[in-house]
Amino acid sequence: MWVLCDRDPVDKWVDGRVALLGDAAHPMLQYMAQGACMAMEDAVCLADSLSRNAGATEAGLESYRARRLLRTTRVQLMSRAMGDHVYHASGPHAALRNSIMSAKTQAEWYAILDWLYGGSGLD
Ligand SMILES: Cc1cc2nc3c(=O)[nH]c(=O)nc-3n(C[C@H](O)[C@H](O)[C@H](O)COP(=O)(O)OP(=O)(O)OC[C@H]3O[C@@H](n4cnc5c(N)ncnc54)[C@H](O)[C@@H]3O)c2cc1C
């Protein structure tokens, strides 16, 4: 029903006064359910970066890119790994997944994901 997009992370999102955002900048698989979330965070960060660099658009775009790159790269790569190692594991791979996942409590899993859900993503 939908095209699934994935690509190795890239760091060139900006060319002069043009910047990429959302899937155009960092297409990711759906296994973390974060593609639209990251696009919305990008939009908020872009507006904030342009505001902080009023009158200096290119500096604002570079600030936006620098502030977003590592977080979106992390989500891109984790989304791919979730697909490969959690959702689509089979045989011994699935048994290892089950063993690792069942060894942690729900609170421990939330703590592991705190970097994603615990803040605004706009540092
Ligand atoms: C199966 C699946 C499940 C998903 N589940 C989730 C989820 O649970 N949570 C989540 O956060 N994300 C999820 N996503 C990801 C999310 O849908 C995307 O990351 C998000 O839509 C990206 O937004 P975007 O604005 O960057 O791009 P898009 O939504 O692709 O928007 C780009 C727009 O540009 C238009 N366009 C293209 N070319 C042109 C042109 N030349 N001129 C004018 N317009 C043009 C397109 O028609 C489109 O409307 C999922 C994706 C898939 C495929």
Quick structural gist:
With 123 residues, the protein is mostly helical. It is 58% helix and 3% strand. It starts with 13 loop residues before the first strand and ends in a 6-residue tail after the last helix.
Kindly describe this structure:
The protein has 123 residues and is mainly alpha-helical. It has a single domain, classed as 3-Layer(bba) Sandwich (FAD/NAD(P)-binding domain), CATH 3.50.50. The chain contains five helices and two strands. The chain has a two-stranded antiparallel sheet with strand order 1-2. Strand 1 and strand 2 form a beta hairpin. The longest helix has 31 residues. It is elongated and about 55 Å long. The protein starts with 13 loop residues before the first strand and ends in a 6-residue tail after the last helix. The relative contact order is 0.15. The structure holds flavin-adenine dinucleotide. The site of flavin-adenine dinucleotide (FAD) has 12 residues, from helix 1.
Chain-wise SSE layout:
Layout: E1 14-15, E2 18-19, H1 35-52, H2 57-87, H3 92-102, H4 106-112, H5 114-117
Antiparallel strand pairs: 1-2
Helix pairs in contact: 1-2
The chain binds flavin-adenine dinucleotide.
Placed side by side, the strands forming the largest sheet appear as 1-2
Q: Could you state the order of secondary-structure elements as H and E?
A: EEHHHHH
| Through-space gap between termini | 36 Å
CATH superfamily: FAD/NAD(P)-binding domain
Helix content: 55-70%
Rg computed from alpha carbons, rounded to a whole number of angstroms:
17 Å
Q: How many β-strands, per DSSP?
A: 2
Tally of contiguous helical segments: 5
Bound molecules: flavin-adenine dinucleotide
- What general outline do the C-alpha atoms trace? elongated
**Major β-sheet, in short?**
2 strands, antiparallel
Structural class: mainly alpha
Average pLDDT over all residues: 95
CATH architecture: 3-Layer(bba) Sandwich
Q: Which residue ranges are poorly predicted, with pLDDT under 50 across at least 5 consecutive positions?
A: none
CATH class division: Alpha Beta
CATH T-level topology: FAD/NAD(P)-binding domain
Strand content: under 5%
Oligomer: single chain
